[in-house]
Amino acid sequence: MEVRNETTVRIDELEFVALARFVFEAMHLHPATELSLRFIDETEMEQLHIRWMDEPGPTDVLSFPMDELTPGTELDPSPEGLLGDIVVCPSVAARQAAESGHSAAEEMLLLTTHGILHLLGYDHAEAEERRVMFDLQRKLLLTFLATRDQES
C-alpha cells in the first residue's frame, strides 16, 4: 500500500493503510494486494475529472482500477494483484464533511472506502447498486472506526 500526500493538508497515512488492510481483509483480498492512494489539490483533481470523466470542476474521489480484482470469499480469497489507484481531494472532502457534520479525516476515510469498493467493481449508477454499495461502505467504515476506537 502506497500513500502519497501531495497537499499541505495533514494526513495520518498509517490510518489509511490500516483502513485499506481492514477493507482488504473484510473483502477477502489476497494479503499482498497492492493499492496506491494519493491526496491531491483541487487544480490537479479538476484536470483528472475533466480528462477521465469529462466533467468540469474538482471532485472528491476518483478510482482507477488495474487488475480488475473482485471480492473473494473466506474459502476462496481473490488472487494477488494490483487493485489500482485512488485519488482523493482533501479540500473537497473538507467541504463535504462540514455539510455532513463530521470531520474531514472521517470524510477522507469514507472516500477511500468508497474508492476501494469502486476498484472491486461496485457502482452506484442504479438505485439497487447504490443501496448495496452504500450499505457495504457504511458497514465497513463504521466497523473500522469502532475497531480503531477500541484500540485507542
What is the CATH fold-level name? Collagenase (Catalytic Domain)
Helix content, binned percent: 40-55%
Distance between the termini: 23 Å
Number of helices: 5
- Helix/strand-derived category reads alpha/beta
The main sheet orders its strands as 1-2-4-3
Q: How many individual β-strands? A: 4
- CATH H-level superfamily title: Metalloproteases ("zincins"), catalytic domain
* Fraction of residues in β-strands: 5-15%
CATH architecture level-2 label = 3-Layer(aba) Sandwich
What's the SSE pattern? EHEHEEHHH
How would a textbook summarize the main sheet? 4 strands, mixed
- Tell me the count of domains: 1
> What is the averaged pLDDT score?
96
> Can you tell me the CATH class?
Alpha Beta
Unreliable runs: none
Radius of gyration: 15 Å
Keywords, separated by commas or semicolons:
152 residues, alpha/beta, Collagenase (Catalytic Domain), four-stranded mixed beta sheet, 5 helices, 4 strands, 14% strand, globular, Endoribonuclease YbeY, metal-binding, endonuclease, rRNA processing, MetalPrtase_cat_dom_sf_prd
